[in-house]
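pasting for the record
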Amino acid sequence: MLSAYIHLNPLRAGVVKHLEEYQWSSFLDYIGTREAVIERLDVSFILNRFGNNLAQAQGRYKGFVMDNMEMENPLKDAFKGIAVGTEAFIEKVKEKIKSIGKNREIRETKFLEAYSAEGIIRELSRCFGIEKQDIFSKKRGNIYRQMALYLIKRHTSLSLKEIGNLFNMDYTAVSYAAKRFEERFKEDKRVLKC
């Protein structure tokens, strides 16, 4: 459950030894150890899944969070960061996005059908006059690899995990590499010129 994963962040980061010590988290509101300080925070959506009695639900939720300290990121296989589920469910989400069209303001929900990872890699190879293996090379500072990761993440429907499999790297590394390239691109627009 995503809320538990988020509430465990201070422990994973080593900021505190006990979650109750971290005052800037809504976890304390969920387990009922303080008066709600976050305006309009609705804990009932989550707590109702743990029982109808508030005190019991709070205790069960706390137990659930503590029992899942080693939980993997539930969004690691998310489609463009907006949907998690079976392949059939993701296909329904894609169809829904496609039916809504490209007039959506949220970039992640625009249906990305024009580009494929192979096409992006082929075009980078052609544009910069390099071999495909140069793009996949793990040598430090490989701008072509970073560019490919960024473009594939931004312009295809591949998940971070799928991109990671393509480049033989962890999905979290894909996200960081794409973000680093995006920041570099913002500073120097010439990076994408060929």
